[in-house]
Amino acid sequence: MCRVLMLALALVVVIVAIAPHQTLSAPLNRTLPGCKSTCGNVEIPYPFGIGNSSTPDQRPCFLKPVFNLACNNSTLKWGTVTVLNISVPAHQVDVLQLVSWFCNSEDYWETWLTTGISRISRKENKFITVGCDSYGNLNSVYNDKTYTTGCLTRCYGNALVIDDGTCSGIGCCQVDIPPRMTNITIKAFAFTTSRRNISINNASVISNSTCSYSFVVKNGFYNFSTTHLKSFPNKTLPLVLDWTVGNKSCDDSKSRGDYACKENSYCDDKDSDYGYRCMCRDGYEGNPYLGCIDIDECKTGHHTCVSEKYCLNTNGSHKCFCPKGQSGNGTKEEGCHKKDVVTKVVIGVAAGTIILVVGTTLLYLIYQKRRLNKLREKYFQQNGGSILLQNLSTRENSSQIQIFTEEQLKKATNNFDESLIIGKGGFGTVYKGHLADNRIVAIKKSKIVDKSQNEQFANEVIVLSQINHRNVVKLLGCCLETEVPLLVYEFVNHGTLFDFIHTERNINDATWKTRVRIAAEAAGALSYLHSEASIPIIHRDVKTANILLDNTYTAKVSDFGASRFVPLDQTEIATMVQGTFGYLDPEYMRTSQLTEKSDVYSFGVVLVELLTVEKPYSFGKPEEKRSLTNHFLSCLKEGRLSDVVQVGIMNEENKKEIMEFSILAAKCLRLNGEERPSMKEVAMELEGMRLTEKHPWINTFQNPEEAHLLQKGSSSVCEPGDSSSHQYTIGYDSINDHVQIAFDDGR
Ligand SMILES: *[C@@H]1O[C@H](CO)[C@@H](O)[C@H](O)[C@H]1NC(C)=O
Ligand SMILES: *[C@@H]1O[C@H](CO)[C@@H](O)[C@H](O)[C@H]1NC(C)=O
Ligand SMILES: *[C@@H]1O[C@H](CO)[C@@H](O)[C@H](O)[C@H]1NC(C)=O
Ligand SMILES: *[C@@H]1O[C@H](CO)[C@@H](O)[C@H](O)[C@H]1NC(C)=O
Ligand SMILES: *[C@@H]1O[C@H](CO)[C@@H](O)[C@H](O)[C@H]1NC(C)=O
Ligand SMILES: *[C@@H]1O[C@H](CO)[C@@H](O)[C@H](O)[C@H]1NC(C)=O
Ligand SMILES: *[C@@H]1O[C@H](CO)[C@@H](O)[C@H](O)[C@H]1NC(C)=O
Ligand SMILES: *[C@@H]1O[C@H](CO)[C@@H](O)[C@H](O)[C@H]1NC(C)=O
Ligand SMILES: *[C@@H]1O[C@H](CO)[C@@H](O)[C@H](O)[C@H]1NC(C)=O
Ligand SMILES: *[C@@H]1O[C@H](CO)[C@@H](O)[C@H](O)[C@H]1NC(C)=O
Ligand SMILES: *[C@@H]1O[C@H](CO)[C@@H](O)[C@H](O)[C@H]1NC(C)=O
Ligand SMILES: *[C@@H]1O[C@H](CO)[C@@H](O)[C@H](O)[C@H]1NC(C)=O
């Protein structure tokens, strides 16, 4: 699923990454080749130029002689005027002109300007007169007629209030420039030539003169100040001239040989009363008198596209486009993400993606499910499922075994929730489960993954399912779909014998009777397993923790995780030593030969445990008491039984019975397996004890051995007997690696 998402993402990235090809624009030429391009700080663009070019043809650098300039001592001169700046696109030239003044009839200056092809720019200039009781005028000759404009400024005695910076008619006046001003003369006049005192802003200022000043000045280049009435600061001020080419209209000029507008330019004579101008066409830039070149709008950012990526430069223009798979014309107005179209596209893409993702997820899930089913099938076969099924179909009624699915058991245990664990041992984990049909079961999950064992598993399940004994935990079914088969047992609700005896509160005669009954029941169950089941079964892990109790304290032998079947023609089989430390048959440990007598030994330990309520092996105790069985046997031998049996359990009534019980335990614990009684004999003897309890008149024989054991009093510590014969406890360290010992310390 993740991979699919990444693929979709990559697709989007690829679409976005498609970008148009871009071209580099050529450098702009401002002058003809071989011509001086600057004078001082001032650039000299064509059609203006200075003299002839330095190229071999020595052609003039200017378009017409009227554009011929001079550069003297870094000062650019156009005739007599100093040029400050030349702009071709605006068709303007900034020049310096002298300020006209009039102080008296002997002290004055009149500025004149022969403009030739140019006009005084109306937009860029103002005509200004500064002075008190003064006026100035601007004269121009046009078609041999003189046109005049001007303004008048007055000051009012000593109460003159003038704001700096405003040319409002008091101390300073200004007028706009009329059209067609060429060949101008500027004159300044005063109404009076006498000296006078003036006060400015209530401060008396002695006007040193009555001079007036008149000039045409570029907007923003002269700001009136009252101090200028005392003394005028500038001898020269800039003004702006509009220039044109030729002296005819566009229409008249285009056919002429000296038509100045080069490629990609057009002719403009709209606001001109004289000549024409050349302008670069839209989308081109540069010098129209040299030829305009295309503007790469995409690169310069002057495009109308949503993004530079969707811009394609064309001659004089550019095109916008949208990446493949998107609609719209790619302009900023519409874009590739124009609302309605884009929404559709987005919805489409989103829907597509969702369908893709959902589809893929479904496919993935189906695949996973199939894989899981296959795996389950594999495990089922591996665990001998088909053998089991075959068996079930051929044998009706004989076995009530049910085959559970993994799903059912997962549900029953809330996906094997840890809080539902009721037991954990060397052989696996037991969960309490609640089946859909309200049955409460114990589900055992094995720890050991032994493939060879799994093959036998089905057979074992079949056999176990046929065990129908009231003191054996009933196997209800199994699940073979998991790697480790799961077993489903009836749920026995009152815990283990181990827990029971170690937590028992009241210690009295009834306590003992219950223990005898439980022992008899457990022995009966084991006897049944050994001799009455269809195939003899050796439990291999007999211990108090594996004897469960139901609500009437009826014993139920459980945990066949380590059980072995004994083929009918064999009485012993070699296996890996397995079991719980403390209960292990030393003979079995030594020889690895498993017989039914190993269970008898372990059961003997259980009997001792019932007598003593001590754990079979405690590392924390002194050496001689560490092994419960050794300690017990020693005490028994020395006639100090009361040293070892649970304090308070023995009384006059049961004294004899406890002795019998102890001797039975001792028999079970014989080192030589063959000398031990069979489980059947043990069961019968225990059953006999129960009956005696119920019917005291059934008297049992008393053998001399017992009498001897009872006679001895209880005093000191019982010394272990032949310790070498109990090597499995003290020789713990010498146990080989292949010996598998589970330390089940109970729960
Ligand atoms: C611009 O200048 C370069 C080098 O000076 C020259 O080769 C080119 O022809 C010029 N272009 C124009 C349009 O004059
Ligand atoms: C410039 O060239 C013209 C002819 O093209 C010539 O008449 C003139 O004398 C030359 N001027 C200079 C300063 O060389
Ligand atoms: C250059 O200017 C100087 C004065 O600054 C003047 O004497 C001279 O004649 C000028 N030359 C030209 C070619 O205008
Ligand atoms: C050239 O101009 C500089 C200042 O701009 C001035 O000092 C110098 O005297 C001038 N030379 C001539 C020959 O006019
Ligand atoms: C010349 O004029 C152009 C355009 O009007 C302007 O950008 C430039 O700053 C001016 N240069 C000077 C030295 O005034
Ligand atoms: C401006 O004066 C010049 C020289 O004095 C003259 O050639 C030109 O015709 C005049 N222009 C106008 C429009 O009168
Ligand atoms: C100007 O003021 C000075 C002193 O304030 C005075 O002496 C003088 O007479 C005044 N002149 C005129 C013409 O008012
Ligand atoms: C100037 O002075 C006069 C009299 O001294 C006074 O009435 C007037 O308010 C003052 N004006 C200003 C602008 O200070
Ligand atoms: C006033 O005029 C005289 C002569 O006209 C001059 O010497 C003096 O410097 C001027 N004073 C001011 C402040 O302009
Ligand atoms: C005139 O005033 C304007 C606005 O206050 C300012 O931008 C400009 O630079 C001033 N010009 C001069 C020559 O002082
Ligand atoms: C006029 O003169 C003043 C004072 O010297 C100066 O600051 C200003 O720049 C001048 N104006 C121009 C346009 O040259
Ligand atoms: C692109 O589409 C918008 C809106 O539909 C429209 O206004 C614009 O003129 C179109 N531009 C081009 C170059 O087609």
From TrEMBL:
It comes from the Eukaryota. Keywords: ATP-binding, Disulfide bond, EGF-like domain, Glycoprotein, Kinase, Membrane, Nucleotide-binding, Receptor, Serine/threonine-protein kinase, Signal, Transferase, Transmembrane, Transmembrane helix. Residues 416-698 form the Protein kinase domain. Pfam families: EGF_CA, GUB_WAK_bind, Pkinase. It is an enzyme of class 2 (transferase). It is found in: Membrane. Residues 294-337 form the EGF-like domain. One of its GO terms (molecular function) is calcium ion binding. It is a single-pass type I membrane protein. One of its GO terms (cellular component) is plasma membrane. GO terms for biological process: cell surface receptor signaling pathway. It catalyses: L-threonyl-[protein] + ATP = O-phospho-L-threonyl-[protein] + ADP + H(+); L-seryl-[protein] + ATP = O-phospho-L-seryl-[protein] + ADP + H(+). ATP binds at residue 445. Residues 1-25 form the signal peptide. The chain crosses the membrane at residues 345-367. Its EC number is 2.7.11.1. This is Wall-associated receptor kinase 2. The lineage of its organism: Eukaryota, Viridiplantae, Streptophyta, Embryophyta, Tracheophyta.
